[in-house]
């Protein structure tokens, strides 16, 4: 799971930085949103509320990037 999160973070940064296939940025953000949703659910089930709040913050940031890059300010070429 940690490797997927690292790959998702790389997918958020490199395509925009290099200008190669920038559509991958909102796709990576959407994938991270799904991963973090599962993390929040798992943390709540295990009773780890403080950790769930941290994961919820990352979930909100990933959702913000996904919505922002799909709808509000997409990369245009």
Task: Spell out the blueprint of helices and strands.
Blueprint: H1 2-18, H2 24-46, H3 49-72
The stretches of 5 or more residues where confidence is low (pLDDT under 50) are none
Mean pLDDT: 90
Instruction: Kindly report how far apart the N and C termini lie.
Output: 33 Å
Q: What is the strand tally?
A: 0
Q: Per DSSP, what share of the residues sits in E-state strands of 2 or more residues? A: under 5%
Name the helicity range. Answer: over 70%
Number of helices: 3
Q: N-to-C SSE series?
A: HHH
Provide the structure class.
mainly alpha
Name the overall outline. Answer: elongated
CA-atom Rg in angstroms: 13 Å
**What kind of sheet is the major sheet?**
none
Structure description:
This protein is mostly helical and 77 residues long. Helices cover 83% and strands 0% of the residues. The chain has three helices and no strands. It has helices spanning 2-18, 24-46, 49-72. Helix 1 (2-18) runs antiparallel to helix 2 (24-46) and helix 2 packs antiparallel against helix 3. It is elongated. The model has no long low-confidence stretch (mean pLDDT 90).
